[in-house]
Queue: 4 jobs
Job 1
Amino acid sequence: MLKIPEPPPNRSKTLNNLIKQQDSKKLARILGANIGPCDPKGRYLHWEKLKHLPPPEGLTSEDYWFATKTARQNVSKKVPLTDKKGRPFYFCVPDTLQKELHWLDQHAAGSITMNQPITNPHTRDTYLVSSLIEESISSSQLEGASTTKNVAKEMLRQGRRPKDHSEKMIFNNYKAMGVIREFKDDDLTPSLILHLHKILTNGTLDDPAKAGKLREASDDIHVVDASESSVLHTPPDADELPERLNMICEFANNSAESEFIHPVIKAITLHFMIGYDHPFVDGNGRTARALFYWAMARHGYWLMEFVSISSIIKQAPAKYGKAYLHTETDENDLTYFLIHQIEVIKEGITSLHEYLGRKAEEFEDAEKLLDHSKAKGKLNHRQLSLLKHALKHPDAIYKIQEHQSSHAISYQTARTDLLKMSDELNLLRKRKYGNSFVFVSPPDLRKKLSDKKL
C-alpha cells in the first residue's frame, strides 16, 4: 500500500547542531567526504532508502544525508513554479540523468536510423493508430477504466459508440490524443488545458458540468491511497488555480536561452505540476499525461507519438505515486519524478523497437507464405498485416470500417483492400451483413497459401 515516506532530516537543523557542538572538524570531514548527489552506485536516493545504507566511516546517517543534500543543492536549478506554500520546485541533473537525457535526444528526436515502418509515410499511420489506442486504453485504465484491452481496441477500430463509463473514458482519451497532434505547434494556454480536460472527461463525471472546468472551493479534493483511508496529498486551494495554470503555461512556452531547461525535463515537469495542482475534480492524471505528449511533440520528440508511457506506468503504479511523494516530502526536489519518468520513457522506446522487430519478422513470414501463390507481390502492408492476423485467427471477421480505422485510410481504400483479398485473391470469404459486407478468415487459409494453384 502506498504511504507517505518519512520526511528527511532537516538540513538546517543538522548544521545548527554541528555549530552548537562547535565540532568544526566533523563539519569539515562531512563536507570533505567527496559525497555527490548520488550514492556510489549512481542512484539518486530518497532518505527512506539512504538511511538504511552504511554511511561513510565516521559519519552518521544524518551526516551522510546532510552531505548528499549539500551536493545536490550545489548543482540544483529552480523552476518558476511553486508549491502551495509558495516554495519553489527545483531539480538536479546528476551524471546518470545527463546520460539518459542524451540517450533520449539520440533515440526520440531528429533523424533516427531504425526499421522502416514508422519512418515510411505509407506505413507510419498504421503504427501511430496502434500506439494512440494503446496509450488511450492504458491511461484510462490507470484511472479506473475496467474494460479489457481487446474490447476497447475493437470499439476504437470499429468506430462504435462507447457502451459504458469505462469505454467512454478510453474513447475520450483517444480523441484527446488526436487533438494534441493538432495543437503541437501552438503555445499552451489555460483555454487549451481546459479544452483537453473537457474532451477527456466528457460524459464520465458525476457532475457533467465539471468537464473542462476548474474545481471550486466546495469540491473537497484529496489524493488518497488505494483503501481511501489515508490522505497522500492535498492540492492547492481552488482560488489559486487560475494563476497557477497561467504560471504553468508561461513555463511551458518560455524559450529564453538565458533560462534554458532541457525540453524533456520541461515536459515531465508539466506532467508533475498538473498532478500536484489537481486542478479538476477528476481526470487530472489523464490531462497531465496528455500535456506531457503535447510538450514532447512541440519540441520535436516525434518518436514519442508511437510510445505509450501509460502502459509502462500501469505495470508498477506504486512507483509512479511514490515518485510524486518523494518530491513532495524532500523540499520539492523534482529529480525523483524526472528519473522515474525518464526510465518509463526509455522502457517505452525500447519496447517499441522490440515490437517493430517482431512485426518485421511477422511480415517476412507472411510474405514467405505467398512465395508459391498468385498473391505474391500483390499485397500492400495493410493487407499483409490483416493476412498475418487471419492466419492466427481462423473465422475472424473483418469489417471495412475497422480496417479503415486501423490504418487511418479512407473508406474506399479500405474497401478496395478487402475486396481484392476476397474477390481477386480468394484469401478471405465475403459475406453479406445487413447493407454491407464482412470478410471472414477461412479455416484452411494456410493450406490455401501453400497451394500453388491459388
Job 2
Amino acid sequence: MPSEKKVLAVIMGGGRGTRLSPLTLERCKPAVPLAGKYRLVDIPISNCINSSINRIFLLSQFNTASLHRHIRSTYRFDPFDGGFVDILSAEQTEKSMDWYQGTADAVRRNLVHFRTSPHDLILILSGDQLYRMDFREIIEHHRAAKSDVTIAAIPVPASKVEGYGLMRVDEDLQIRQFVEKPKDPAVIASLAVGPSVEAQLKERSAEKRCLASMGIYVFNKSVLAEALDNSMTDFGREVIPNLLGRKKLCAHLFEGYWEDIGTVRSFFEANLALAQPLPPFNFFEPEAPIYTQENYLPASKFNRCAIDSVVIGDGSIITDSSIHHCVLGIRSYVGEGSSLEDVIVMGADYYETTEQLRHNAEKKRPNIGIGKGCRIRRAIIDKNARIGDGVRLSPVGKADGSYADGAVIIREGILIVVKGAILPAGMVIE
C-alpha cells in the first residue's frame, strides 16, 4: 500500500463558532460559504484529495444540517478505491452523554470508528483554515525523522503571535518546548527562532519570528491512542505539552499562505483579498484544484455595469450597478442603480419562481437579493437575504451591536445582514 494510503485524515468541525457569529447561527464553521462558491470545509478536503489521501472523517457537533447536505452532494468516491468522507457527529454512548469537550476529546470518542480503516498514521486538520498544502511532504518528513508526532509550523513575527501556540525547536526541528497562546513578552522572546532554524527558512525577516502551530498534526496511530488515554480535552493546551520529553515531537516548516478563519474580521478580510488582482491565495491553481459542489448553474449575467476587482459566483444577475472590491456568491442578484464596495454577498440557495415573485409583490416583501438604488459599504450579506429598494448600509460611525430587530449585526466594525433577513425599502443604517 502506498504510504499516503496508510494515512487517515480527521478534520475537526469546530465548536459553536461564537467568534464567527452571526454567520454561524444556522450553520457550523466548516459550512460557512467562501470565495463565492465554496465552503470552508472544501479547503482541507481538497488538500487531502490533492495529496492522494481519500479516507477522511469529519467530526462535527453544532448546526450540522447544511454541512451534511454539502458533503453528501459533493464528495462521492469510486467504490473500488475505498475512499470516503464520513461525518461523525457527537453522539450519546454508554460511556458519555455530553458534547465534545475539545479537540482531543472529539478525537478520543471516535477512535473506535477509526479502527475499521487500515492505517498507521492519523492526520488531524482544522475545518476553518484557508491554505494549500501537499500533506505528502509533512508525512515524508514525519517518517524520515522517525517522529511520534509532527506539527505543521508557520513562522510568525513576534509582534503578531497573539492567539497562537508557539514552539521552540532544535536545528533538526525537534520540539523542545511548546506554549499555548503565551502573553508574557519574556516567554515569547524565549521562543524566538534561533539562527540555525532561521537559516532553513526561505523568506528573510528583519523582525524576530516564532514558530506557530497551524493546528495540523501527524500522529503515529499507537501514539495517538496512548496520548488520549486520559481525560485531556485539548491538543494544544494539554496533549502536546504532556508528550514533550516522553515522545519525539518534530516541527514541519510551512511558508505558504495560511489564514485561520476564526473571526468575522478574518473571514471578511480573507474573502475580499481574493478579489485582488494577485490574491494571496490562488483558486486558479490547475495542479491542486479546490473542489466543491457542482450546482449546474448558468453563467452570470451583467448589463451596463461598472465592475472592478470582483469575484462573482455562477448564476448571478447584476444590472446597471457599480460593484467594487466585492465577492458575490452563487445566484446573487443586484438591482439597477445600486452601489457596492467592500461587500461579501453570499447569494441564494434557490431562484424564486414567478409565483413567488408575484406573492412578494402582493405582500410588499422584497425579492431575494439586493434591490434597486441601494448603497452598501463594508458589509456581509448572508444567504437568502431580501434587501428592498433604496436601502443604505454601512458600519462606519456605528457601534457594534444589533440593529433592525436583529436583522443586522455590526461586529468588529463590519455590518452583517443575517441569513434570510428582510430589510424593507428605504431602510438606512449608516
Job 3
Amino acid sequence: MAPSRAPSAPNTTFRRLRGSLSPGEFAAAVRRAAREIGEQVSCDARYIGRVEAGEIRCPNYAYERVFRHMFPGRTLEDLGFAPRHSVRGRRSRPLSEGEPENCPSGHRNENDEESDVLRRAFMAGGSVAIASALALGPRPARAAGHGTGTGASDVPDVPDVPAGGGRGVGTAEVRAVEESVRGIRLLDDQYGADAIYRRAGHILRVAHGLLDEQPGSAAVADRLHAGAGELAITVGWLAHDSGRLAEARAHYAEALATARLSDDPALEAHAFCNTAFLARDAGRPREAVRAAQAARRAARQVPSARLQSLLALREAGGWAGLGDRTACEGALNRAHALFGRGTCDDDPEWMSFFGEAELYGLQAQCWAALGEHARAAGYARRAVELQDPHFGRNIALFTAELVVDLVGAGCVDEAAHQAEEALLLMDRVRSSRIRGMLDDAARGLRGHRGNPAAAAFLEHYAQARADRAGAV
C-alpha cells in the first residue's frame, strides 16, 4: 500500500515571488516568459493557486525551465518546490487517496498540463472508482483554413461511471469534484462548450450520487455541497454557451438551492450572477436586473471588489436590454470604480476570466443593446486586443461581437475583415452562442455584397456552413 502523505504545505516562497501581481497577472507573466524561450505552457490563475497551495510539489520540466528563466540562478528548492529526486516518477494510473503527486520523467507537450488536471479530476478508490470517466482532453483540431466552424474534432465519449458504493464520502471524493470543475473550466476557456457539455453533465450526475451518501464529517459535507454547486453552475454555463438555455436555467436553479440549503453566500452570488447573464441573453432583461441585484446582496459577505464589479456589469446588461440608458451608465460607472480597486485574495476562483478584456467586452454588449454600435465597436475592439491568448473562446466571442457592432456602425470593410478572423477562430472553438453571433453578422453583410471584402467573406462563410452540415 502506498505510504500516506502529509497534507500539502503552502508554497509561501512562490507566493512571495508573485509579489503584488494577482494570480491571473502572474500567470500571464509565466506565459510571456515561456514564449521568450520557446516553451508552451497552459498557465492560468488556477495553476498558480495550486502551486501556492502546495498541491504541485514539483513542476514538470517545461515549467521548471520557464521558472528558472524568470528567476535566474534559483533552483527548484529556491522556488519552494520539492527537489525532483525526492518525488517518484509518475504512474500510468490515476492517483488514489494518500498517494503523492509526482513529477514527470521527461519533456511533454503543450496540452499535458491540462491533461494532468483532467486525469486527476476523479480519482480511483472510495465511493467513486471513475478515473477513466474524465478523458476530457480534446483531439487535435483540423488544419487551419476557412474551416467548418465546428471547432476541434469530436472528443471520445465518457464511459459509464459506476454508482457510489455506499461506503461514505471522504476528502478524496471531494477533491475529485473540485478538480473536475477546474478541468472543465480550463477546456471551456480554450474550446467552448459544445464539445464538452454532455460529458460534463455526466460528471455532474456522479456528483449528485455522492450527495446522497454519508459524508465523513461536517467539513466534508460543506465542501462537497460547495463543489457540487460550482459544478452545477459550470455545467449550466456550458448549456448556456451551447444554446441550451432551458437546461442552463435548471442547473442554475439547482446551484441556487444548494447554496441556500448550505448557507453559502459565495455560491449564491455566483448562481445569481450566471442567472442574470442567462436572463439577458434569453430576452428577459428585467429578470437580469433583479438577479444581478440579488447577487450583489449575497456578495456583501464576500469581500471582493472584482466580484461586485462583475455583478454591476451584469446589472448594466439588464438595464441596457430595457433601454434605460441612465441606469445602465450608472451601473457601468460603478463597475469601473470597483474594478479599479484591483484584485485580492478573496476574489472567487471562478473569476479568473474576469480581466480588463472582459470589462471592455461586457461594456460593448451594453452599448450595442442601446443601439450605439460605433461606441460598442470601440469597446469590442479593445476587448479583442487585451484578451489573454489562453481564453480562446473569449477571443472568438469578442471578435464576433466586434463584427456585429461594425456591421451596425456601417464599417463594412473592417467588419468583413474581422468576420474572416472570427471564422478562422471557429475552427478551434465550439460555441453555438458565438456561432449564432457570426450568423447574425453574415446576415448583416449580405446587404453589402457589392463590397469585395464582404463578398469574399460571404463565400467563405457559405463554404464553412456547407462543411459543417456535411460533418453532422
Job 4
Amino acid sequence: MSVPFASSLMESIPDLVQAVIALFIIVDPVGNIPIFISLTKNFDKNQRKRVFRSAALTGFFLLIVFALAVQWILTFFSISVYSFMIAGGLLLLVIAIKLLIEGEWHEPAGSLEKLSAVPIAVPLLVGPGAITTTIFSIQNYGLIITIMSVVIVFFFVWVMLRLIDPIYKFLGNSGSSIIARIMALLIAAIAIQYIINGISYYSPMV
C-alpha cells in the first residue's frame, strides 16, 4: 500500500463514519424491530428468515442501483438535488412525526413475497429518507464512500434481522418503542437539516 493511498484512506474515514451513521439512523433497523415482528407474526421461523433475507437484499440492491443512477435520474426529470433534498426532508419529517406520536408504523399484513418487498424493504428499510440520505452522501462524500456506507449499513441490517427474535426479547415491547421514538427524533432533526440545506442553496441568507 502506497503512502499517498494510505493517507487518502485515513482522511476518508471520518466521512465514511458520518455517512454510515446518518444512513443507519434513517434505515433504523432497531426501531423497526417491533414492526418487523408484528408483520411476520403469522410465519414460522424459517419463513421469517426468508422474508428478512429477501428484504435486506432487495433494500441493499435498490440503494446501490439508486446511488449509481442518481445523477441520470435527476437529469432525466430535470430535478435539482437540492429540490429533492427539500422534498425528501419534508416526507421524512412527516414520517418522523408519525413515529413520534404513534410509536409505530401501520401496514396491512400480506403474503411472504409481498412483505419482503413491501413494506419491509420499501419503505421501512429504503424509503424517501434513505434515498435522500444517499443523494446527500454522494454530493458530500462521493460515490465510493456512499456505496461503502450502504454495504456497511446493510451488513448490520442483515445481522440484526437474523437476530431479531433474541433482540426483541431483550428489548421488550416497551424498550423497542422507546428506541423507535428516539430514532424518530433523530430522523426529524436530520430531515430539518436536509430542508435547511436545500433552502440555503436557493436563499443563501438562510
